UniProtKB/TrEMBL annotation:
Transmembrane residue ranges: none
Native organism: Saitozyma podzolica
Taxonomic lineage from the root: Eukaryota, Fungi, Dikarya, Basidiomycota, Agaricomycotina
InterPro entries the UniProt entry points to: Phytyl_CoA_dOase-like
Record-linked PANTHER family: EXPRESSED PROTEIN, PHYTANOYL-COA HYDROXYLASE
Protein's UniProt name: Phytanoyl-CoA dioxygenase
Pfam families in UniProt: PhyH
Length: 362
């Protein structure tokens, strides 16, 4: 199996398209262990997990994402990651540092009116009303909203350039796990472009749709690493990420199909997640339950009880989505996506040196 990717030509400052084999040997096509059951929440049938469309996910397509301690051996961390394509690491960042970041962020955007009056910004309690009026990065474009129309969006976008956000992304404990998972990398690099995502309670049709990251990182082979960082506690029904178990082989297969479909496009369009051959802005489906039943081959969506300080690391072809935020306290789910690559190997330079802005094509 091969995939087209681009590498930078320093003489022209453009990208050239080459063919390279997909290195997926480490990702085996066997289901992840299913014995784990969350001791706090019990069986998944007790929970209401909803995707972007399709309503509540049936219990037969749900399971638990098993956590691992940051103090696990390097061998265990790598083995779990290579086997499953995703690893949920507990307590990577000090809890107080994460909660301080959450408080600072909501203080920064509070002038938009997004928070309930007379509540602590750290709690991030939604003000109520129409949640679509407070659409943030990664959601507003799907709703056709602009920064001029949505003050919360404008503040959220400008936050990406603030020093407190930059400092949080640079956390050394996250990089330590990256280096343990990728010891072969000669020059671990954190991309400048990150995406602070807010999931407003009871916002219909705005949960993250089914996708994998490589669709948006096609200017390099699928060797990057994503760290999804919850900024605050995110219980199972509060809109956290859900992962289709052992789905890297499916993601690789789908991406290989897109590569063939895109063969006759221009170089720029081949790399685009929004080209003529893509659907729904680079997403695979809005209905997570239907996708699992029709494309998953018996795989389940793995959910988790995320706590401040936890970090999830996943392969760029790991298929994932998010649930609808039904937080009973009305808390806004906040998280950031950090992406890493080996600076000594081909990587997607489009992500490396620019802040996120709406409409940047990524």
């Amino acid at each position: 199996m091969t995939i087209q990717f681009s590498a930078p030509d320093s003489s022209t400052n453009k990208y050239w398209i080459v063919l390279a084999p997909i290195m997926a040997a480490a990702i085996v096509s066997q289901p992840a262990p299913i014995a784990f059951e969350n001791p706090k929440w019990g069986h998944v049938s007790k929970l209401n997990i909803e995707g972007n469309e399709g309503g509540r996910l049936r219990p037969d397509v749900l399971g638990w994402l098993e956590p691992v301690s940051k103090d696990a051996s390097d061998e265990e961390l790598r083995e779990r990651f290579e086997r499953d394509g995703v690893i949920f690491v507990k307590g990577v960042i000090p809890r107080e540092k994460v909660l301080a970041m959450r408080k600072k962020y909501f203080e920064y955007v509070s002038s938009s009116g997004v928070l309930k009056e007379q509540t602590d910004p750290e709690d991030g309690i939604f003000c109520g009303g129409d949640p679509h009026k407070f659409a943030g990065p990664g959601v507003a474009s799907h709703l056709g909203l602009t920064e001029a129309e949505c003050d919360f969006l404008a503040k959220s976008v400008s936050a990406h350039k603030e020093e407190f956000v930059h400092a949080f992304a640079q956390d050394g404990e996250i990089m330590k796990i990256v280096q343990r998972l990728k010891p072969e990398w000669k020059d671990p690099l954190l991309f400048k472009r990150q995406l602070l995502r807010s999931n407003i309670p009871n916002s219909e049709g705005t949960a993250t749709k089914v996708h994998y990251d490589q669709i948006f990182l096609r200017a390099a082979p699928p060797t990057s690493l994503t760290a999804w960082v919850p900024i605050g506690d995110i219980p199972p029904e509060s809109g956290g990420l859900i992962y289709l178990e052992n789905s890297v082989p499916i993601g690789l297969e789908i991406e290989d199909g897109f590569t063939k479909l895109n063969a006759n496009l221009s170089d720029e369009d081949r790399l685009s997640a929004f080209n003529v051959n893509m659907t729904d802005r680079g997403n695979l489906s809005r209905d997570a339950g239907k996708f699992a039943r029709e494309r998953g081959g018996g795989r389940r969506w793995l959910i988790a009880d995320y706590e401040a300080g936890d970090v999830v690391f996943h392969h760029p072809c790991m298929i994932h989505a998010s649930g609808v935020n039904r937080d009973p306290m009305g808390r806004i789910r906040l998280a950031t996506d950090l992406r890493f690559a080996d600076g000594a190997a081909p990587y997607d330079h489009r992500w490396a040196n620019k802040y996120f802005v709406p409409g940047d094509g990524l």
